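Batch manifest line 307
LIGAND: flavin-adenine dinucleotide
JOB: complex structure
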Amino acid sequence: MVKDALRLRERLQGVIRGNVLIEEPLSRHTYFRIGGPAEVMVYPADLEDLKALLKVARDESVPALVLGGGSNMLVLDGGVEGVVINLSRTFLDLSAIEGLIRCGAGVRTSRLLALSARSGLTGLEGLTGVPGTVGGAILGNAGTPSGTVLDHLEWVRVVDCSGEERVLQRQEMSVSYRNCALPRGVVVVEAAFALRKGAPVEIRRTISRLLVKRNLTQPVEYRSAGCIFKNPPGDFAGRLVELAGLKGLRRGAAQISDKHGNFIVNLGGATAADVLWLVDRAGTEVRAKTGVALELEIRVVGSPIAR
Ligand SMILES: Cc1cc2nc3c(=O)[nH]c(=O)nc-3n(C[C@H](O)[C@H](O)[C@H](O)COP(=O)(O)OP(=O)(O)OC[C@H]3O[C@@H](n4cnc5c(N)ncnc54)[C@H](O)[C@@H]3O)c2cc1C
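JOB STATUS: finished
ARTIFACT:
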């Protein structure tokens, strides 16, 4: 495998300008601080690099996984085969003109929110405290009961696996709770949001109120991947996990938070296997006690055993 990775790195270095790493531990790049290595990880320098990289992956039949802020992902301990495209340093442009914010997919949601507040544009406050990038937020229709990222989305610019660019209007996108179904394999590179005018002081007040609430109710002092399960219709996954008596349960260095039943936290040095054990236990016990089948909100990627 390392031989394959070296060959792929050489091929990629021949066509792109961005940084190409092999066997890069993904625990350095996920919010959870968990995850085995990426066979090859690339930081595309720009749009042309991304297109070239996607074409190489397609021609070589190598799987490609996009990584934004890694805040909605559990990377398994054996790591990820193929290419991980790290977009956290690419597509960082951000501008507000009139009521329209244009934003690169690698921009942190916190930066987007800060610009909207500064520009007196309201509508994105539901993203308060949601870590990660705008690309990842769009894929997961990230948000809170105060609103989601797609509420005010106008369009996204995407690149497909043959390197073709296209713009998808919001109406063309199939959206559901914590999901946005884009054509298979596309990478989001830019998005535009149409926002209403609001008073900056009011927007900042709302953001502060939502941040205080989050800090009081969520284990923000620990590494995690946010909510593990989607909330079932009319209920809260955290309430059901608590009802099953599982808050505080530990496996290795992973723990179902004693502050919020829908968070699993890394107490330091947890493995993906520890987390999965807790996920499985919570799913099984909640089903047995309440009849509800919980669905995962986090994205589990990679292989459980070393390649
Ligand atoms: C403490 C904490 C609190 C959280 N609170 C919330 C919350 O309140 N609401 C909520 O919705 N989420 C929440 N989350 C989850 C997470 O922050 C969001 O889902 C976030 O939007 C993910 O963005 P990311 O860049 O980290 O995505 P990643 O985890 O890097 O990726 C998520 C998925 O999107 C894909 N992806 C990423 N970027 C792109 C792109 N440019 N093009 C194509 N595919 C892409 C990845 O391949 C992956 O499938 C929380 C997480 C944490 C750790």
